[in-house]
Write a structure and sequence with these properties.
The chain is of the alpha/beta class. It folds into 2 domains: 236 residues, FAD/NAD(P)-binding domain (3-Layer(bba) Sandwich), CATH 3.50.50.60; 125 residues, D-Amino Acid Oxidase, Chain A, domain 2. The chain is built from 11 helices and 21 strands. The strands form 4 sheets. Strands 7-6-15-16-17-14-18-21 form an 8-stranded mixed beta sheet. The radius of gyration is 21 Å and the shape is globular. It starts with a strand and ends with a helix. The structure holds 8-demethyl-8-dimethylamino-flavin-adenine-dinucleotide and P-hydroxybenzoic acid. P-hydroxybenzoic acid binds next to strand 16.
Length: 394
Protein backbone atom coordinates (compact mmCIF):
# COMPACT_ATOMS: atom_id res chain seq x y z
CA UNK A 1 0.00 0.00 0.00
CA UNK A 2 1.25 3.53 -0.81
CA UNK A 3 1.71 5.72 2.25
CA UNK A 4 1.94 9.52 2.42
CA UNK A 5 2.02 12.08 5.21
CA UNK A 6 0.32 15.46 5.57
CA UNK A 7 -0.73 17.78 8.39
CA UNK A 8 -4.52 17.58 7.90
CA UNK A 9 -6.33 14.95 5.83
CA UNK A 10 -9.76 16.18 4.75
CA UNK A 11 -12.49 13.64 3.92
CA UNK A 12 -14.96 15.06 1.37
CA UNK A 13 -14.85 17.81 -1.28
CA UNK A 14 -18.18 19.52 -0.59
CA UNK A 15 -18.26 23.17 0.49
CA UNK A 16 -16.93 22.34 3.99
CA UNK A 17 -13.94 20.25 2.88
CA UNK A 18 -12.97 22.55 0.01
CA UNK A 19 -13.14 25.79 2.02
CA UNK A 20 -11.25 24.15 4.88
CA UNK A 21 -8.53 22.93 2.51
CA UNK A 22 -8.29 26.33 0.88
CA UNK A 23 -8.04 28.33 4.12
CA UNK A 24 -5.50 25.92 5.63
CA UNK A 25 -3.43 26.18 2.45
CA UNK A 26 -3.45 29.99 2.73
CA UNK A 27 -2.12 29.59 6.29
CA UNK A 28 0.68 27.33 5.11
CA UNK A 29 -0.86 24.15 6.56
CA UNK A 30 -0.27 21.16 4.31
CA UNK A 31 -3.46 19.20 3.59
CA UNK A 32 -4.89 16.54 1.28
CA UNK A 33 -8.58 16.40 0.25
CA UNK A 34 -10.10 13.01 -0.64
CA UNK A 35 -13.42 12.84 -2.52
CA UNK A 36 -15.17 9.63 -3.44
CA UNK A 37 -17.09 11.08 -6.42
CA UNK A 38 -15.78 12.40 -9.73
CA UNK A 39 -14.99 16.07 -10.27
CA UNK A 40 -17.82 16.32 -12.78
CA UNK A 41 -20.31 14.89 -10.27
CA UNK A 42 -19.50 17.29 -7.44
CA UNK A 43 -19.38 20.28 -9.79
CA UNK A 44 -22.90 19.60 -11.04
CA UNK A 45 -24.69 18.39 -7.92
CA UNK A 46 -27.77 20.66 -7.47
CA UNK A 47 -28.20 21.65 -3.86
CA UNK A 48 -28.38 24.81 -1.79
CA UNK A 49 -28.50 28.28 -3.29
CA UNK A 50 -28.60 30.94 -0.58
CA UNK A 51 -25.49 32.41 1.04
CA UNK A 52 -25.79 34.46 4.21
CA UNK A 53 -24.20 37.90 4.42
CA UNK A 54 -21.38 36.90 6.80
CA UNK A 55 -20.59 33.79 4.76
CA UNK A 56 -20.23 35.78 1.52
CA UNK A 57 -17.84 38.09 3.39
CA UNK A 58 -15.86 35.05 4.51
CA UNK A 59 -15.63 33.72 0.94
CA UNK A 60 -14.61 37.12 -0.42
CA UNK A 61 -11.91 37.51 2.25
CA UNK A 62 -10.65 34.04 1.37
CA UNK A 63 -10.18 35.13 -2.25
CA UNK A 64 -13.00 33.01 -3.69
CA UNK A 65 -15.63 35.73 -3.99
CA UNK A 66 -14.86 37.20 -7.37
CA UNK A 67 -17.31 35.23 -9.55
CA UNK A 68 -19.83 35.08 -6.67
CA UNK A 69 -19.87 38.88 -6.48
CA UNK A 70 -20.19 39.16 -10.27
CA UNK A 71 -22.75 36.45 -11.02
CA UNK A 72 -24.47 35.96 -7.65
CA UNK A 73 -27.80 37.74 -7.15
CA UNK A 74 -27.95 40.10 -4.14
CA UNK A 75 -31.43 39.97 -2.55
CA UNK A 76 -32.65 42.55 -0.04
CA UNK A 77 -35.82 40.76 0.97
CA UNK A 78 -37.99 37.67 0.72
CA UNK A 79 -41.71 37.32 0.27
CA UNK A 80 -44.03 35.33 2.53
CA UNK A 81 -47.40 34.29 1.12
CA UNK A 82 -50.29 32.89 3.10
CA UNK A 83 -54.08 33.32 3.30
CA UNK A 84 -54.03 34.81 -0.23
CA UNK A 85 -51.78 37.68 0.83
CA UNK A 86 -48.20 38.57 -0.08
CA UNK A 87 -45.90 40.19 2.48
CA UNK A 88 -42.37 41.38 1.96
CA UNK A 89 -39.71 40.98 4.64
CA UNK A 90 -37.44 43.92 3.91
CA UNK A 91 -33.81 43.21 4.86
CA UNK A 92 -32.77 46.82 4.27
CA UNK A 93 -35.06 47.93 7.10
CA UNK A 94 -35.05 44.86 9.29
CA UNK A 95 -31.56 43.41 8.93
CA UNK A 96 -29.37 46.52 8.92
CA UNK A 97 -29.28 46.70 5.14
CA UNK A 98 -27.57 43.36 4.76
CA UNK A 99 -28.28 41.17 1.76
CA UNK A 100 -28.21 37.46 1.04
CA UNK A 101 -26.60 36.21 -2.16
CA UNK A 102 -28.31 33.67 -4.38
CA UNK A 103 -25.44 31.62 -5.85
CA UNK A 104 -25.61 27.88 -6.41
CA UNK A 105 -23.62 25.63 -4.10
CA UNK A 106 -22.09 23.89 -7.10
CA UNK A 107 -20.75 27.24 -8.30
CA UNK A 108 -18.98 27.73 -4.95
CA UNK A 109 -17.62 24.20 -5.34
CA UNK A 110 -16.45 24.88 -8.93
CA UNK A 111 -14.67 28.08 -7.88
CA UNK A 112 -12.84 26.29 -5.06
CA UNK A 113 -11.82 23.26 -7.13
CA UNK A 114 -10.55 25.49 -9.95
CA UNK A 115 -8.49 27.57 -7.55
CA UNK A 116 -7.04 24.55 -5.78
CA UNK A 117 -6.10 22.57 -8.86
CA UNK A 118 -5.20 25.30 -11.35
CA UNK A 119 -3.70 27.91 -9.10
CA UNK A 120 -2.42 26.40 -5.87
CA UNK A 121 -1.59 22.95 -7.17
CA UNK A 122 -2.70 21.50 -3.82
CA UNK A 123 -3.68 17.83 -3.39
CA UNK A 124 -7.28 16.93 -4.21
CA UNK A 125 -8.02 13.33 -5.19
CA UNK A 126 -11.34 12.45 -6.82
CA UNK A 127 -12.77 8.92 -6.98
CA UNK A 128 -10.92 8.29 -3.74
CA UNK A 129 -13.14 6.86 -1.04
CA UNK A 130 -12.02 6.79 2.57
CA UNK A 131 -12.86 3.36 3.99
CA UNK A 132 -11.34 3.53 7.47
CA UNK A 133 -10.15 6.07 10.01
CA UNK A 134 -7.75 4.78 12.63
CA UNK A 135 -5.89 6.08 15.67
CA UNK A 136 -7.96 9.19 16.41
CA UNK A 137 -7.31 8.58 20.11
CA UNK A 138 -3.55 8.70 19.45
CA UNK A 139 -1.25 11.41 18.09
CA UNK A 140 -0.78 9.46 14.86
CA UNK A 141 -4.12 9.00 13.14
CA UNK A 142 -4.36 7.78 9.55
CA UNK A 143 -7.02 7.11 6.95
CA UNK A 144 -7.17 4.37 4.34
CA UNK A 145 -8.65 5.18 0.95
CA UNK A 146 -9.29 3.37 -2.31
CA UNK A 147 -7.97 5.55 -5.11
CA UNK A 148 -7.84 5.01 -8.90
CA UNK A 149 -4.12 4.23 -8.39
CA UNK A 150 -4.85 1.61 -5.70
CA UNK A 151 -5.04 1.66 -1.90
CA UNK A 152 -3.56 4.71 -0.15
CA UNK A 153 -2.79 5.30 3.53
CA UNK A 154 -2.52 8.94 4.64
CA UNK A 155 -0.90 9.76 7.97
CA UNK A 156 -1.79 13.16 9.42
CA UNK A 157 -1.80 15.13 12.65
CA UNK A 158 -5.58 15.67 12.29
CA UNK A 159 -8.44 14.12 10.35
CA UNK A 160 -11.22 16.51 9.24
CA UNK A 161 -14.56 14.78 8.62
CA UNK A 162 -16.32 16.84 5.92
CA UNK A 163 -17.99 13.85 4.32
CA UNK A 164 -21.63 14.85 4.62
CA UNK A 165 -24.65 12.96 5.90
CA UNK A 166 -24.00 9.44 7.22
CA UNK A 167 -20.30 9.75 6.41
CA UNK A 168 -17.71 7.36 7.79
CA UNK A 169 -16.12 10.03 9.97
CA UNK A 170 -19.19 10.71 12.14
CA UNK A 171 -19.43 6.99 12.83
CA UNK A 172 -15.78 6.95 13.95
CA UNK A 173 -16.58 8.86 17.13
CA UNK A 174 -16.91 6.09 19.77
CA UNK A 175 -20.53 5.25 20.59
CA UNK A 176 -19.85 5.87 24.28
CA UNK A 177 -19.15 9.59 23.76
CA UNK A 178 -21.36 10.23 20.73
CA UNK A 179 -24.86 11.69 21.04
CA UNK A 180 -27.24 11.96 18.12
CA UNK A 181 -30.32 14.20 18.08
CA UNK A 182 -32.82 13.74 15.29
CA UNK A 183 -36.21 14.95 14.11
CA UNK A 184 -38.00 13.66 11.01
CA UNK A 185 -40.88 15.53 9.32
CA UNK A 186 -43.95 13.98 7.69
CA UNK A 187 -43.17 15.66 4.35
CA UNK A 188 -40.40 16.07 1.76
CA UNK A 189 -39.57 18.59 -0.98
CA UNK A 190 -39.94 17.94 -4.67
CA UNK A 191 -37.42 20.30 -6.28
CA UNK A 192 -36.98 21.28 -9.91
CA UNK A 193 -34.46 23.33 -11.86
CA UNK A 194 -36.09 24.82 -14.97
CA UNK A 195 -35.03 26.95 -17.87
CA UNK A 196 -37.26 29.97 -17.39
CA UNK A 197 -36.81 33.62 -16.56
CA UNK A 198 -37.63 34.49 -12.93
CA UNK A 199 -40.94 36.43 -12.72
CA UNK A 200 -40.12 37.71 -9.25
CA UNK A 201 -36.89 39.37 -8.10
CA UNK A 202 -36.95 37.71 -4.70
CA UNK A 203 -37.57 34.31 -3.14
CA UNK A 204 -41.19 33.49 -2.32
CA UNK A 205 -42.09 31.16 0.55
CA UNK A 206 -45.72 30.22 0.25
CA UNK A 207 -47.96 28.43 2.74
CA UNK A 208 -50.97 27.28 0.77
CA UNK A 209 -53.68 24.97 2.08
CA UNK A 210 -52.56 22.42 -0.54
CA UNK A 211 -49.03 22.56 0.82
CA UNK A 212 -45.76 24.45 0.84
CA UNK A 213 -44.15 26.02 -2.26
CA UNK A 214 -40.89 27.91 -2.72
CA UNK A 215 -39.91 30.10 -5.61
CA UNK A 216 -36.16 30.54 -6.04
CA UNK A 217 -33.72 31.05 -8.87
CA UNK A 218 -30.15 30.55 -9.96
CA UNK A 219 -29.65 33.11 -12.75
CA UNK A 220 -31.64 35.36 -15.10
CA UNK A 221 -32.43 32.17 -17.10
CA UNK A 222 -32.87 29.51 -14.42
CA UNK A 223 -35.49 29.05 -11.72
CA UNK A 224 -35.35 26.64 -8.79
CA UNK A 225 -38.76 25.69 -7.42
CA UNK A 226 -39.93 23.40 -4.66
CA UNK A 227 -43.21 21.77 -3.58
CA UNK A 228 -43.90 20.20 -0.20
CA UNK A 229 -44.95 16.58 -0.86
CA UNK A 230 -45.39 13.30 1.04
CA UNK A 231 -42.14 11.74 2.30
CA UNK A 232 -42.74 8.64 0.15
CA UNK A 233 -43.84 10.65 -2.90
CA UNK A 234 -43.15 8.96 -6.24
CA UNK A 235 -41.46 11.30 -8.70
CA UNK A 236 -42.93 9.31 -11.59
CA UNK A 237 -46.41 10.51 -10.54
CA UNK A 238 -45.44 14.11 -11.27
CA UNK A 239 -45.68 15.07 -14.94
CA UNK A 240 -44.23 18.44 -15.94
CA UNK A 241 -47.75 19.78 -16.29
CA UNK A 242 -48.78 18.64 -12.83
CA UNK A 243 -45.67 20.24 -11.30
CA UNK A 244 -46.30 23.61 -13.01
CA UNK A 245 -50.04 23.58 -12.19
CA UNK A 246 -49.37 22.83 -8.57
CA UNK A 247 -46.69 25.51 -8.33
CA UNK A 248 -48.98 28.11 -9.89
CA UNK A 249 -51.80 27.22 -7.50
CA UNK A 250 -49.67 27.21 -4.37
CA UNK A 251 -47.70 30.33 -5.23
CA UNK A 252 -51.06 32.02 -5.60
CA UNK A 253 -51.92 35.56 -6.64
CA UNK A 254 -49.23 37.27 -8.63
CA UNK A 255 -47.46 34.14 -9.73
CA UNK A 256 -50.61 32.51 -11.04
CA UNK A 257 -50.89 32.98 -14.76
CA UNK A 258 -47.59 34.83 -14.75
CA UNK A 259 -45.48 31.87 -13.68
CA UNK A 260 -43.10 31.45 -16.58
CA UNK A 261 -42.70 27.78 -17.40
CA UNK A 262 -39.89 26.11 -19.33
CA UNK A 263 -38.03 22.84 -19.81
CA UNK A 264 -37.35 21.05 -16.51
CA UNK A 265 -33.62 20.32 -16.45
CA UNK A 266 -33.45 18.46 -13.14
CA UNK A 267 -35.86 17.10 -10.57
CA UNK A 268 -35.52 15.28 -7.27
CA UNK A 269 -37.01 14.62 -3.85
CA UNK A 270 -35.22 15.78 -0.70
CA UNK A 271 -36.03 14.38 2.75
CA UNK A 272 -36.66 16.86 5.55
CA UNK A 273 -35.04 16.36 8.93
CA UNK A 274 -32.80 17.75 11.63
CA UNK A 275 -29.77 15.84 12.88
CA UNK A 276 -27.06 16.98 15.29
CA UNK A 277 -24.10 14.85 16.33
CA UNK A 278 -22.31 15.89 19.50
CA UNK A 279 -19.44 16.44 20.08
CA UNK A 280 -17.90 17.79 16.84
CA UNK A 281 -14.45 16.72 17.96
CA UNK A 282 -13.00 13.55 19.40
CA UNK A 283 -9.24 13.26 19.86
CA UNK A 284 -7.61 13.94 16.49
CA UNK A 285 -10.90 13.85 14.56
CA UNK A 286 -12.89 17.02 13.89
CA UNK A 287 -16.27 17.11 12.11
CA UNK A 288 -17.63 20.01 10.04
CA UNK A 289 -20.76 20.58 7.93
CA UNK A 290 -23.35 17.91 7.15
CA UNK A 291 -21.06 15.27 8.69
CA UNK A 292 -22.07 16.78 12.04
CA UNK A 293 -25.51 18.29 11.43
CA UNK A 294 -28.43 18.44 9.02
CA UNK A 295 -31.14 21.11 8.85
CA UNK A 296 -34.38 21.01 6.88
CA UNK A 297 -33.83 23.34 3.89
CA UNK A 298 -36.65 25.79 4.71
CA UNK A 299 -34.26 28.21 6.44
CA UNK A 300 -31.63 27.94 3.66
CA UNK A 301 -28.96 27.23 6.28
CA UNK A 302 -27.24 23.96 5.21
CA UNK A 303 -24.26 25.30 3.26
CA UNK A 304 -23.93 28.36 5.50
CA UNK A 305 -23.69 26.23 8.59
CA UNK A 306 -21.01 24.06 6.97
CA UNK A 307 -18.88 27.13 6.24
CA UNK A 308 -19.53 28.64 9.68
CA UNK A 309 -17.96 25.51 11.25
CA UNK A 310 -14.93 25.89 9.00
CA UNK A 311 -14.54 29.51 10.05
CA UNK A 312 -14.14 28.33 13.67
CA UNK A 313 -12.02 25.31 12.78
CA UNK A 314 -9.25 26.99 10.77
CA UNK A 315 -7.70 29.15 13.53
CA UNK A 316 -8.11 26.22 15.95
CA UNK A 317 -6.13 23.83 13.73
CA UNK A 318 -3.53 26.47 12.91
CA UNK A 319 -2.88 27.20 16.62
CA UNK A 320 -2.68 23.50 17.44
CA UNK A 321 -0.28 22.72 14.60
CA UNK A 322 1.92 25.81 14.78
CA UNK A 323 2.08 26.54 18.48
CA UNK A 324 0.94 23.29 19.98
CA UNK A 325 -1.84 25.36 21.56
CA UNK A 326 -5.05 23.30 21.63
CA UNK A 327 -7.27 25.72 23.54
CA UNK A 328 -9.31 26.74 20.49
CA UNK A 329 -9.55 23.14 19.34
CA UNK A 330 -10.70 22.06 22.80
CA UNK A 331 -13.45 24.69 22.55
CA UNK A 332 -14.27 23.89 18.87
CA UNK A 333 -17.30 21.69 19.50
CA UNK A 334 -18.93 23.99 22.07
CA UNK A 335 -18.22 27.10 19.98
CA UNK A 336 -19.85 25.55 16.90
CA UNK A 337 -22.80 24.08 18.76
CA UNK A 338 -23.99 27.60 19.55
CA UNK A 339 -24.44 28.51 15.86
CA UNK A 340 -25.49 24.94 14.99
CA UNK A 341 -28.41 24.94 17.44
CA UNK A 342 -29.33 28.52 16.48
CA UNK A 343 -29.64 27.41 12.85
CA UNK A 344 -31.45 24.20 13.84
CA UNK A 345 -33.96 26.28 15.78
CA UNK A 346 -34.53 28.77 12.94
CA UNK A 347 -34.84 26.01 10.32
CA UNK A 348 -37.33 24.20 12.55
CA UNK A 349 -39.33 27.40 13.07
CA UNK A 350 -39.52 28.14 9.33
CA UNK A 351 -40.34 24.53 8.49
CA UNK A 352 -43.11 24.19 11.05
CA UNK A 353 -44.67 27.53 10.14
CA UNK A 354 -44.90 26.95 6.40
CA UNK A 355 -45.93 23.29 5.91
CA UNK A 356 -49.66 22.76 6.54
CA UNK A 357 -50.65 19.48 8.10
CA UNK A 358 -53.86 18.02 6.57
CA UNK A 359 -54.43 15.92 9.70
CA UNK A 360 -54.00 18.59 12.35
CA UNK A 361 -56.25 21.65 12.24
CA UNK A 362 -54.93 22.89 15.57
CA UNK A 363 -51.43 22.93 14.14
CA UNK A 364 -52.67 24.77 11.03
CA UNK A 365 -54.27 27.51 13.13
CA UNK A 366 -51.04 27.91 15.10
CA UNK A 367 -49.03 28.21 11.87
CA UNK A 368 -51.28 30.97 10.59
CA UNK A 369 -51.09 32.81 13.91
CA UNK A 370 -47.30 32.65 13.71
CA UNK A 371 -47.27 33.97 10.14
CA UNK A 372 -49.62 36.81 11.05
CA UNK A 373 -47.34 37.69 13.91
CA UNK A 374 -44.38 37.94 11.54
CA UNK A 375 -46.15 40.44 9.31
CA UNK A 376 -47.89 42.36 12.11
CA UNK A 377 -45.18 42.62 14.73
CA UNK A 378 -41.97 44.38 13.81
CA UNK A 379 -39.77 42.66 16.45
CA UNK A 380 -40.89 39.26 15.13
CA UNK A 381 -40.22 40.28 11.51
CA UNK A 382 -36.84 41.66 12.59
CA UNK A 383 -35.90 38.39 14.30
CA UNK A 384 -36.86 36.42 11.19
CA UNK A 385 -34.94 38.79 8.89
CA UNK A 386 -31.79 38.77 11.02
CA UNK A 387 -31.76 34.98 11.20
CA UNK A 388 -32.48 34.58 7.51
CA UNK A 389 -29.69 36.97 6.53
CA UNK A 390 -27.02 36.06 9.06
CA UNK A 391 -27.93 33.35 11.62
CA UNK A 392 -24.49 31.77 11.42
CA UNK A 393 -22.76 35.03 12.34
CA UNK A 394 -25.09 36.38 15.05
P1 LIG B 1 -21.49 17.70 1.21
O1 LIG B 1 -21.71 18.79 0.25
O2 LIG B 1 -22.45 16.59 1.28
O3 LIG B 1 -20.05 17.12 0.89
C1 LIG B 1 -19.58 15.91 1.43
C2 LIG B 1 -18.66 15.27 0.43
O4 LIG B 1 -18.04 14.14 1.00
C3 LIG B 1 -17.99 13.11 0.02
N1 LIG B 1 -17.80 11.83 0.74
C4 LIG B 1 -16.64 11.13 0.77
N2 LIG B 1 -15.45 11.37 0.20
C5 LIG B 1 -14.45 10.47 0.43
N3 LIG B 1 -14.62 9.35 1.21
C6 LIG B 1 -15.80 9.10 1.81
N4 LIG B 1 -15.97 8.02 2.57
C7 LIG B 1 -16.88 10.02 1.60
N5 LIG B 1 -18.18 10.08 2.03
C8 LIG B 1 -18.71 11.17 1.50
C9 LIG B 1 -19.29 13.25 -0.72
O5 LIG B 1 -19.26 12.67 -1.99
C10 LIG B 1 -19.42 14.78 -0.79
O6 LIG B 1 -18.83 15.31 -1.96
O7 LIG B 1 -21.32 18.27 2.71
P2 LIG B 1 -20.80 19.68 3.25
O8 LIG B 1 -19.49 20.06 2.60
O9 LIG B 1 -20.88 19.59 4.72
O10 LIG B 1 -21.82 20.78 2.71
C11 LIG B 1 -23.12 20.83 3.22
C12 LIG B 1 -24.13 21.14 2.12
O11 LIG B 1 -23.89 20.35 0.99
C13 LIG B 1 -25.56 20.90 2.60
O12 LIG B 1 -25.74 21.39 3.92
C14 LIG B 1 -26.66 21.54 1.77
O13 LIG B 1 -26.51 21.38 0.41
C15 LIG B 1 -28.01 20.93 2.23
N6 LIG B 1 -29.01 20.92 1.18
C16 LIG B 1 -29.68 22.05 0.93
N7 LIG B 1 -29.47 23.11 1.73
C17 LIG B 1 -30.12 24.24 1.49
O14 LIG B 1 -29.91 25.21 2.22
N8 LIG B 1 -31.00 24.35 0.41
C18 LIG B 1 -31.23 23.28 -0.42
O15 LIG B 1 -31.98 23.40 -1.36
C19 LIG B 1 -30.58 22.09 -0.18
N9 LIG B 1 -30.79 21.03 -0.98
C20 LIG B 1 -29.27 19.76 0.40
C21 LIG B 1 -30.16 19.86 -0.69
C22 LIG B 1 -28.70 18.53 0.71
C23 LIG B 1 -29.00 17.39 -0.03
N10 LIG B 1 -28.44 16.12 0.40
C24 LIG B 1 -27.34 16.10 1.33
C25 LIG B 1 -29.08 14.91 0.25
C26 LIG B 1 -30.42 18.76 -1.48
C27 LIG B 1 -29.84 17.51 -1.18
C28 LIG B 1 -30.15 16.36 -2.10
C1 LIG C 1 -32.65 27.24 -3.29
O1 LIG C 1 -32.55 28.24 -4.03
O2 LIG C 1 -32.30 26.10 -3.67
C2 LIG C 1 -33.21 27.39 -1.94
C3 LIG C 1 -33.56 28.65 -1.48
C4 LIG C 1 -34.10 28.79 -0.21
C5 LIG C 1 -34.29 27.68 0.58
C6 LIG C 1 -33.94 26.43 0.12
C7 LIG C 1 -33.40 26.27 -1.14
O3 LIG C 1 -34.84 27.83 1.81
Amino acid sequence: MREVRTQVVIVGAGPAGLVLGHLLHLQGVDNIVLERRTRDYVEHRQRAGVLEYGITEMLAEAGVGERMRREGLAHHGIQLRFENGAHRINFLELADGRAITVYGQQEVVKDLIGLRLNFHGAALHFESEVRAIEGIDTERPFVDANTPEGPLRIHAAYVAGCDGTHGVTGQSVPALVRRRFERVYPFAWLGILAQAAPVNDELIYSRHERGFALYSMRSPELVRLYLGVAPDENLADWSDERIWDELATRLGEGAHGQLQTGPILERGITAMRNIVLEPLRHGRLVLAGDAAHIVPPTGAKGMNLALADVRVLVPALVAALRENDTRLLDAYSDTCLRHVWRAEEFSTYMTQMLHPNPHDEFENRVQLARLRQVVESEPTARALARHYVDACSL
